[in-house]
From TrEMBL:
Its EC number is 2.1.1.193. One of its GO terms (molecular function) is methyltransferase activity. This is Ribosomal RNA small subunit methyltransferase E. Pfam families: Methyltrans_RNA (PF04452), PUA_4 (PF20260).
Amino acid sequence: MTAPVFVVDAVPTGPEFVLDGPEGRHAVSVKRLRPGEDVVLTDGCGRWTEGMVKAAEGKDRLVVAELHEVHEEPEPTPRITVVQALPKGDRGELAVETMTETGVDEIVPWSAARCITQWKGERGLKSLAKWRATAREAGKQSRRVRFPHITDPMTTKQVAAFLTTADFAAVLHEDRSHPSEPLATAELPASGSIVLVVGPEGGVSPEELAAFADAGAGAYRLGRSVLRTSTAGTAATALLLGRTGRWS
């Protein structure tokens, strides 16, 4: 089992570092770390270092010593972004959590035409904050040191413009009246960026499909079964990580 991961504002260079606040409380009171145990400290942006617990003080102070050199994990390639239509209820956080654990690099919240949920005003800001907090916690849980970036929400027009920047863009779409190719056999770039669009439970509208096609995104399917919007992005990310060699 790899060492538990904790997030810091700046990765320390030693010789000692005190982890306090919410992260310190989690380490001391929840994880109940003890002297001699290893930990990883990261900024969540690829920089990280290892250390060993020297002492646990009170309920929220962990003294970390024997800090190693600071490492920088390179940006993965090809970079995988999922444009996720807003699911209803807490299924959005579920989608973010599982995609983060799987290895997605970026998630774009998308207000699709057929989304039941729409992020507006203060409620929208709170929902975005929940997605970002979920990505952070799932990144720690899965021992990542480079957490996925959760962008601001995008409209269909903004998503279409974003798709034009990708080296490979795909819309996950299953409809007998609209031909689609299997994602498992699509020609993928060896580097650059891959962007996947996951529609809402009601599906991607014909107008959205047309806009995305004009932006260079073809329609692709995962398999014979139709996945929910909260699981399709995770399944597609796993497929691409295997096919591109990032899981090799």
